[in-house]
Amino acid sequence: MVMLIICAVTLYPLWYVLIASFSDPMAVSTGRVALLPHGFELASFNKVFGMRNIWTSYGNTIFYSVVGTAINMFLTVLGAYPLSRKRLRGRKMFAFAILITMWFNAGMMPAYLNFRSLGLYDTRWAILLCGAVNTFNVILMRTFFENVPDSMEESALIDGATDTSILTRVYLPLSVPALATLTMYYFVGRWNSYFWSMVLLQDQSKVPLQVLLRRLIVQIKFNVNDTVDMSASVMTEQTVVYATIVVAVLPMLMLYPFIQRFFIKGIMVGAIKG
Asked: Are 167 and 81 in contact (CB under 8 A)?
């Protein structure tokens, strides 16, 4: 019973946003929408999809998420595999040097100045390389690799396999649940990120969906009438905001069922050692 209550409390805000985005705007504004939709109206979605550059921003988000996640996973695997090998000299020192970045970092302004000095300001590479690797995920991947029996590596070495072959033919096929889980974490993070895109990108043709939707919500909140022309009989500020939320999270909801089967094992990445 307690778990059902917790699930209901967790899922209700998502359900409310969904039904409110499709409901009659006046019913939403007067509080008549609670558990079931009231009426059916698509004007808010038409307004969102009618925004300038909406499809360009969608394409940018897909590009940043897919290519950025590929970079994330490539660097994570390359960092985790050497750290998991006991034969690596200075392994503890390298592990500590990487781990310390979880506790201390230069800060936002030095990072911004670093991007400018490298000539990455207002470029797509800035978004792809920003957060290119997550230290915590490297540690999780390393722990998962350490759980693979050493006998498998020893057998491969006897057969003359190189580290590249051992990684690609032994460790990666055995680590599909961990790889799928970390890929999902990285992808969701890439899809939802907007801060550094907002800071580093000036060209509006390069901004992702989240930046565009955030700008819409801010403009609606401060009643910028030349940006969003709303009629009380057609839509309200709330329904437009709810529609933007649905637009932003719908791809994630569609993607999750295809990889959720990996979460049963992947959620325990790094939890068991030995």
From this structure: yes
Lowest-confidence pick of 102-106, 171-175, 188-192, 261-265: 261-265
Distance CA 248, CA 213 (A): 8
Helix then strand then coil, in percent of the chain rounded to 5, is 70, 0, 30
Domains of the chain, CATH where assigned: 13-266 (1.10.3720.10)
pLDDT digits (tens, 9 = 90+) for 56-101: 888 899 999 999 999 999 999 999 999 888 888 888 888 888 888 8
Question: Which has the closest alpha carbon to 266: 179, 160, 190?
Answer: 179
> Which residue type sits at 199?
V
Are the C-beta atoms of 73 and 59 separated by less than 8 Å?
no
174 Cβ contact partners less than 8 Å away, ≥ 6 residues apart: 148, 152
Q: Taking the CA atoms of 163, 165, 168 and 169 in sequence, report the sign of the dihedral they define.
A: negative
Largest CA distance in the chain: 76
Residues 164, 167, 173, 176, CA torsion sign: negative
Global pTM? 0.81
